[in-house]
Structure formats: C-alpha cells, structure tokens
Write a structure and sequence with these properties.
metal ion binding; FBPase_class-1; fructose 1,6-bisphosphate 1-phosphatase activity; globular; carbohydrate metabolism; 321 residues; FBPtase
Length: 321
C-alpha cells in the first residue's frame, strides 16, 4: 500500500510550490481523460516557437501551468516550450525558483490516446536577488529538482529533489498522489533500446554502430528489443523502470539534435543520474552542458549505466580517428 505524498519529507523543501503543481496536474489529467468528449483533441490552428503545430491541449496545458506557477508566489522565471520568451514574474508575486517545462510532451500523440506528459526542471536563485535570464542558462547539474508527470493508464509523477528518485501515482478517489515507486533505481544494464529507426540513414557512425550492435551482438549475448513510442515521457519512463537506453541522436537533418536542453534533456538526465544511470550528449555528460539560448537543442543518450558506457566508448573511438 502506498504512502501519501505528504509523508515524504524530501519533498517539503519545495513544498508549497509542489502543492500548486500537483493541483494543476490533476486539472490536466481531467482534461486529458475528457479530451475527446470536450473537443480538446486536434490542432489549435497555431504554431509554437519551435515551428510545431500546437494541439488544443498544448495551449490549455501551458495556460494552466503558467497561471499556477505565477500564482504560487514561489517562482521568478518561467521557460515553457510553448512560449518564445521567458516569463518574468511580477515582483509582487515573485519567489526564488526558476521553472523550465514542457507543458505537454508527446502532444503529436494526443489524438490516438498514447501516453503523454509534463516535464519540468527547477533552479533556485538567492533571496533578494533580481532574476535574470542567466539564472536559467545554467548547467543541468545546478538544478534543485526535476521530474515528469505521465498521463496514461494511470497518472504517474516521477520526481527527484537531488536525493534519489521517487514515483507517485494519482489516486482519483482521494485526489492525492500516493508513493508507489520509492527510491527508483535503473538496472545497470538493460534489454531494450529506444530510438526512431526511421532516421537511421541520417545517423553518424557511432549511433549506427551502436544500434547494429543492439540488434546483432557479436559477443554471443541476446539481441536487445526495440521499443519506441515517440513520446519522450513514455519512452524514458519505461527505460527508467526496466533499464536499457533511450537515444535521440544528432543526424544530417538535425545536426544539433532535436530535443530541447532546458526542459527535456536536463530534467530527464537529472532523473537518470539520480537513479544510477547516465546521460551523454555524444560529446560530454549531459548535465555539464551550458545552454546559451532558452530553446537550445542537443542530442541525448540516456539510460542504464553500462549501456550508456558502450555508446560513449564508440564516440571516443570515433574521435580518435
């Protein structure tokens, strides 16, 4: 039987902020479950700063979270995937936390009912200091918390405040999150790889060699199984629980990678490291990367420690040629 979220003392460092987050998450869950009936599926008729067509739930989710985070009185800067510029909170409502988030990851899958979710990371500034954009353009290792909430067969919240990773499940009858996955640890090596093989013709040599090794190992070990949903939250959640590796490499079409550093790469890398795994960009530890723009992109390889070690070795060998 799970433990209610209130009893997990590690969350109280950011307690009031998270309370607002949880309440708004429940609202998003309700909207997601009723999306078809409430005419919330389909396109909103606009594109976001990334040039992606916005879904109706994208727009609604962004509005809900921005409003909640501002009204919490605990935030000073908000960076959302859906907004071109950072939001600076009015001084009267200002707090010490900078929040970077993707309000609805995997939104291209909304209409077909695939699991989607919210990804977030949090930085802190010193009390009494006026916030500036440099406060979010920091390495991911400086985050004080990160997590995601997945909306699927159940509503699952996975969270780290720098002392391990815990998973919570929403009990709809109580309207509360229950601790169901305490102290999540990713297996040291996994049996699954997760990548969009439709991009294979555009991959660099290390990625191509690694995937070939997954499918046709030369050391007598079993081949890995391919599992790819196309929703980062869902693919990373499975990787975190079962082990293996999630890959979104750079390629000829996207030489800087596709995923956004601040609100996709950093939070997921933070969780992976806290759970005992690794995250690598193809050049360096992901959490050491210093972004220069709020919507900057990066390649990413994250998952089980030994699996990421293998692809790191392939990139190192390529660099020596």
């Amino acid at each position: 039987m799970g433990t209610r979220i209130e009893s997990n003392s590690s969350l109280w460092a950011l307690g009031f902020f998270f309370l607002h987050y949880y309440i708004q998450t429940i609202d998003i869950v309700a909207c997601t479950l009723q999306a078809g009936l409430a005419k919330l599926i389909g396109l909103a008729g606009e594109t976001n700063v990334q040039g992606e067509e916005q879904k109706k739930l994208d727009v609604l989710s962004n509005e809900v979270f921005v409003k909640a985070l501002v009204s919490s009185g605990r935030t000073c800067i908000l960076v959302s995937e859906e907004d071109e510029e950072a939001t600076f909170v009015d001084p009267a409502l200002r707090g010490k936390y900078c929040v970077v988030f993707d309000p609805l990851d995997g939104s291209s899958n909304i209409d077909c009912g695939v699991s989607i979710g919210t990804i977030f990371g949090i930085y802190a500034i010193n009390d009494g200091v006026d916030p500036k954009i440099e406060d979010v353009l920091q390495p991911g290792k400086n985050m004080v918390a990160a997590g995601y909430c997945m909306y699927g067969s159940s509503c699952t919240l996975v969270l780290s405040t720098g002392k391990g990773v815990n998973g919570f499940t929403l009990d709809p009858s109580l309207g509360e999150f229950i601790l169901t996955h305490p102290d999540i640890k990713i297996p040291k090596k996994g049996k699954i790889y997760s990548v969009n093989e439709g991009n294979a013709k555009n991959w660099d040599a290390p990625t191509a060699k690694y995937v070939e090794k997954c499918k046709f190992p030369q050391d007598g070990s079993p081949a890995k199984s391919l599992r790819y949903i196309g929703s980062m939250v869902a693919d990373v959640h499975r990787t975190l629980l079962y082990g293996g590796i999630f890959l979104y490499p750079a390629d000829k079409k996207s030489p800087n990678g596709k995923l956004r550093v601040l609100y996709e790469v950093f939070p997921m890398s933070y969780l992976m490291e806290q759970a005992g795994g690794q995250a690598f960009t193809g050049k360096q530890r992901a959490l050491d990367l210093i972004p220069t723009k709020i919507h900057e992109r990066s390649p990413i390889f994250l998952g089980s420690y030994d699996d990421v070690e293998e692809i790191k070795a392939l990139y190192a060998a390529e660099g020596q040629k």
